[in-house]
């Protein structure tokens, strides 16, 4: 029985995500917050015949109430890309939005799990961590950057070239971050052995890394992935909720490689080096991150090792941009 707040609930992701969370039978309270249009979205979704109580919260004056007494906050607030933009181009606007929202969560529900969708995830998650540290409530096991869409794309894109594979059950660990070459699918460690040749691996990796661009291009100025993201966000939230109620669930997600996170050292040795954040397959439990699932070094291919090195260089810049912003703002 979980209380959930969605911040940015009236947006392209927010609306379908709110609907999917209303359908989640473990959710008893669903607080929908936005700076526009949220009363209509909440009224609409509140008629769906599940037991969750839906409430609308509009604008900064209602933010504190929206995030009071919650177990999980999901944040898809912020601007999306248009063709020609990178996710980093969103930093200027979204950094401040995420900072304000996380400050409110830290003050009103300091133990809530926080799942950040707003881009650039590689920087917004470090911003959130700094905000929580400044408020004295940072717990690295309860803060997540949502990278599930990369995992979802990996399963689906494999199915595009291998019709014998079931996209609903195939799991490909995706590590690193959430933008372009920071996204590193470990196809060698897929739940079903794939045995692709190197050309196929290169093409598939490139497609997974730049899957977001396919949608941005097709939407032609009307935004980025919303429906597949709502699906991915709801899947991640459901995994977290099931873990909170005692199940053991594994999902890749962008987390802090803190000293007390079991498995962090192994990921450093694999190529994360001194980075403070990295997307890794995480075993989730009642208190959030239980441990990082070991990725056997001997199974990683040379191609993947090089991709992790490239990702780590880019991530170092993204992480420090987020940390500097939070410290100076
Ligand atoms: P959108 O513009 O359709 O919706 C964003 C919503 O955020 C709007 O309703 C807007 O009013 C609201 N908002 C703006 N400022 C706010 C504030 N201060 N407080 C609360 N709400 C605020 O955009 P979208 O398509 O839903 O995308 C949202 C974000 O998610 C973007 O940054 C996008 O890049 C990101 N995204 C991430 C992933 C991922 O895999 N992590 C995937 C897709 C999109
Ligand atoms: C995605 O991967 O689809 C999102 O990060 C949105 C984007 O800007 O591509």
TrEMBL record:
Protein name listed in UniProt: Malate dehydrogenase
Task: Keyword check for Oxidoreductase, yes or no.
Answer: yes
Q: Where does NAD(+) bind?
A: 8-14, 34, 94, 117-119, 229
Give me the residues that bind substrate, please: 81, 87, 119, 153
Q: Which reaction does it catalyse?
A: (S)-malate + NAD(+) = oxaloacetate + NADH + H(+)
Q: Which GO terms describe its biological process?
A: malate metabolic process; tricarboxylic acid cycle
EC number(s) recorded for this UniProt protein: 1.1.1.37
Which superkingdom heads the taxonomic lineage of this protein's source?
A: Eukaryota
The record's family statement is: Belongs to the LDH/MDH superfamily. MDH type 1 family.
List the record's Gene Ontology CC terms alphabetically: cytoplasm
Residue span(s) of domain Lactate/malate dehydrogenase C-terminal:
147-325
Give the Gene Ontology MF terms in alphabetical order: L-malate dehydrogenase (NAD+) activity
User: Which keywords describe this protein according to UniProt?
Assistant: NAD, Oxidoreductase, Tricarboxylic acid cycle
Self-association state and partner proteins as the record states: Homodimer.
Domain (Lactate/malate dehydrogenase N-terminal) ranges: 3-145
UniProt xrefs under SUPFAM superfamilies: LDH C-terminal domain-like (SSF56327), NAD(P)-binding Rossmann-fold domains (SSF51735)
**Residues at the catalytic site:** 178 (proton acceptor)
Which organism's genome codes for this protein? Coemansia asiatica
